[in-house]
Amino acid sequence: MSFKITEKVTWVGKIDWELRRFHGDEYSTHRGTSYNSYLIRDKKNVLIDTVWKPFDEEFVDNLKKEIDLNEIDYIIANHGEIDHSGSLPLLMKEIPEVPIYCTAAGAKILKAHYHEDWNFVKVKTGDTLDIGENKLTFIEAKMLHWPDSMFTYMGGENILFSNDAFGQHYASDLMYNDLVDQAELYQEAMKYYANILTPFSPLVIKKIEEVLSSNVPVNMIATSHGVIWRDNPTQIVEKYLEWAKEYQENQITIVYDSMWNATRRMAEAIEEGIKIEDKNVVVKLFNAAHADKNDIITEIFKSKAILIGASTVNNSILSSISGILDMIKGLGFKNKKAAAFGSYGWSGESVKIITERLKDAKLEVINDGIKELWNPDEEGLKRCREFGVNSAKNL
Ligand code: FEO
Asked: Is 115 considered catalytic here?
């Protein structure tokens, strides 16, 4: 499959309808994904990025239907991660001399992955490549989200090839932002930002302001995953600015795990208490052992506060909650309040451990948390409701 996105630019990527786990097991892809590669035909012919290795033969065969490979003058590798560079080894066997334009970090990464001495041309922000009627300008986007990440801007057609930025893991045959279900599109775009780009938010703001200040027209943002933004393409840029600035909605997310439902009953009583105090706030509950961890992270991203609960086991906390706390720390959420809760039988360390880990993740812990012995009775549930009321007062 391929299709023209403009007279000069053809999409030559791969829609991966099957993918459900990405980055090992670190990212769930409920709606599959796509690896977008683009072929520019001008006086010179340029290939931007490739697709993930399992599809390398299909990719190269498909590309051959579009163009004689010997007519490709330049390859641009906006990013060295395997989902975009994985077909390079097979392609380069056929056209080994074609120069690969990438950042200095990109050349290092590609060499370290494939151990090939390809003809790398290292570029920096502002470097250009004349290809005929159009000119390509390179924009380094360091740590968005790897050290080598780069955008390529095609002047004339005014297309920003943004690679991962503004992308979504979203398989769709419709391929354009104006054609797909908007709720699905924004759910996937936000999940992508929350789970991948959150740690780099200050850099997102800086890079977007740098690009906007150059006042270049953008008719299209051609990402490397999901749909192409062509209808009001900068809407996603504005969203990124909003998301990068310590985003939150009027939401509290309660995440817990429970061995015999005592901590679950605590979570539900706390939720009742929050709603007694504030009827308008959205409260969502997730059992971390059952819910998808990336969906939980997306809900945490939207929240002004999170309450984390686990029963005590082996003087520690349940492993699903430990995993979520690791992710919260790694993503470096800012401007979120937090508290802990949990049931216990004898030693009862869970609340203290969760509280310490929330502090370590730089969340603002609003109280000492609440713990209940074994299965809470009506008095215990009342204490949990009061904890919910008091917590809501501080949020
Ligand atoms: Fe889609 Fe960072 O690779």
From this structure: no
